[in-house]
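Good morning N.,

You mentioned wanting to compare the apo and holo forms, so I went ahead and generated the holo version with nickel (II) ion. This is what I fed in:
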Amino acid sequence: MHWIQSAAEAMASHLSALRRDLHRCPETALQEYETSAFIRRELERLQIPCRMVGETGVAGFLRGTAPGAGAVALRADIDALPISEQTDAPYRSVREGTMHACGHDAHTAILLGGARLLAQHRDRFHGEVRFFFQPAEETGRGAMDFLRAGLLEGAERVFGLHVAPDLPLGTVGLKPGLNNAAVDGFRVEIQGKAAHVSTPQLGADALYIACMTVVALQAQVTRCTSPTEPVLLGIGTLRSGTAYNIVAESAILEGTTRTVSPEARQRCRRQIEATVAATAALYGGSARVVWDDIASAVINDPGATEEVARLVRNLRPDLTVCPDRPLSLGGDNFSEFETAVPGAYAYLGTANPNRPETQHPIHNARFDLDEDALPIGVWLHAAAVLSWLGDLNGEDQP
Ligand code: NI
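and this is what came out, ligand included:
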């Protein structure tokens, strides 16, 4: 067995303990104060200097002692979701209404484990490893703060991973190119004119306009986009009206688009704006669209992804690489790091066929994972770094 694998597996119980501590005390986007303090305490224990990024993000910096330069960034997201946990796990959330239902507790524990492994073997690599603990992934925030702070400057590669209950334990999704769609949020603000419901001709019915807009917008997908191109448009809320006998004066719709190329993303925006304006004008109202850039599409650099896939194939015959995991229209703003530096985002199989509780989808109140995946995640981080900044040759024990 290669020494990195032995080192990762030797910390299995430590990784479970870290993950369970994090799992018990989840914090939602931009509220990760205790999580952030937990991460900094662990990095201090490992004597890895760190700095805050925003109010709850943390970046750690570890220099190798081998001769040479270079830099590689590793990223974990740290936030939880506003979900009430419904598992029977002994480590279930103690915070009603908040849950690590997307595995970010595991991502954080894995990256802390990777930091520990690399700190213990800093003579085996050169340059600098940067550990990014990113808040607010679920709301499309956090990532750009690391870029704006210049923390990717001089980095040659970025690596990250996400747990995947759709893949069995022992399988690692490593797909070059497109993995996840780009995500935009939008709010449509419709302005009408109030009147008594018995005299609709004197008003402009914002509620009616909102309903027609919801229907008209779907034509962007079904009538204006190639059927072979994945574009999704969903409207999640419609708020309008004050009383049963008043023509509604205003309405607000909130929705999201998922697209897979910068061109489609721009085209969708233009078409939505045109549809919204035309529909409102048709019935005597007006409307505008307010956009929220949530995440770019996750596009793995083919070279960097193949480098990691080759490591798995060469060093871990016990693992399987899945190079063609289906496209997800869920977003992940790891994408922002990959727009700056060639990167690879891996999907870590966490489903155990003998344990039904590990087979629920992410964002589900019963989500859980097989913790045997944690040392595999640590191995991926450490092996990637040592291949990029060090020397992986030799099966020797450290
Ligand atoms: Ni997630």
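The chain has a mean pLDDT of 96.

Happy to go through it together on a call whenever suits you.

Best,
F.
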